[in-house]
Design brief:
This protein has about 260 residues and is of the alpha/beta class. About 30% of the residues lie in helices and about 20% in strands. A 7-stranded mixed beta sheet has the order 4-3-2-5-6-9-7.
Length: about 260
């Protein structure tokens, strides 16, 4: 089975790395349900099947679905042949929590995280392989040049760990970039209160829309009182604010309405 560019496929061929990724899930005993995204030819899948867990897999490539059904018969009837971004995650596993894992297609890896955030109540932990630059961006601290929208939105709900780097030669065909595996663990208490989640997303996205400008310029459409724009929050650039500071700034903006 050849990789298809339209699906962003690069098949991992290192058995040791596949095992290492599978073993990076820490909460299986607490949450014994696993959802794998993009199993492809099953390199990671074979090790997930060995775990004491209920496994489902989402695969959009119909050719790969046929391949998995043939070579991994124990996975039959547990493959969701759909685009992951269109799967209602709260309808899986009878609504019980599950762990998310995969060697994610790089062309939709950020979208995968945003889709996960919509169902964060179901996902206490995620282990995923990303393009190295994306992995670094997701877990970047404030002040880092890669820190941005996805950093803040993910870190408001999860803490992140950089696990290891994967060389491009570990894939067939090899991608043009290096890869990395990270783990996200859901916070016991999210930084954002549910009633302010939508405003928080708006504030973060608008703040980084012109990241070189001070927040008093990029957020002025959300703030009716010009005097508020002189407060310390708004005299900074977005990369200078931690996720906690973005939450506090969102609360301040909410208090003005």
């Amino acid at each position: 089975m050849k990789a298809k560019k339209s699906f962003g496929q690069h098949f991992l061929h290192r058995e040791d790395l596949a095992l290492r990724i599978a073993e990076s899930l820490l909460q299986i005993k607490t949450y014994p349900n696993i959802l794998e995204i993009g199993p492809g030819r099953g390199m990671l899948t074979k090790y997930l099947l060995e775990l004491e867990a209920q496994l489902l897999a989402v695969e959009a490539d119909q050719d790969m679905v046929l391949y998995l059904n043939k070579y991994y018969p124990t996975l039959k009837n547990r493959i969701i042949a759909q685009d992951f971004l269109k799967v209602p995650l709260d309808q899986l596993f009878q609504g019980d929590p599950f762990l998310l894992i995969g060697n994610f297609p790089y062309n939709i890896s950020s979208q995968i995280l945003f889709h996960m955030l919509r169902y964060k109540e179901q996902v206490p932990e995620m282990v995923g392989m990303f393009q190295k630059e994306v992995a670094e961006r997701v877990i970047a601290p404030s002040g880092n040049k890669t820190y941005g929208v996805i950093s803040v939105l993910v870190q408001a709900y999860y803490t992140g760990e950089y696990l290891f780097t994967v060389d491009k030669t570990s894939f067939n065909p090899p991608p043009k970039v290096q890869s990395a595996v990270i783990r996200l663990t859901r916070r016991q208490t999210p930084l954002v209160e549910p009633q302010q989640a939508e405003l928080f997303r708006t504030v973060v996205k608008q703040a980084f829309s012109q990241r070189r400008k001070m927040l008093r310029n990029t957020l002025k459409s959300l703030i009716p009182d010009p005097e508020v724009l002189q407060e310390p929050f708004f005299t900074k650039r977005p990369e200078q604010l931690s996720p906690e500071s973005f939450v506090e700034m969102t609360k301040r903006i909410a208090s003005l309405s």
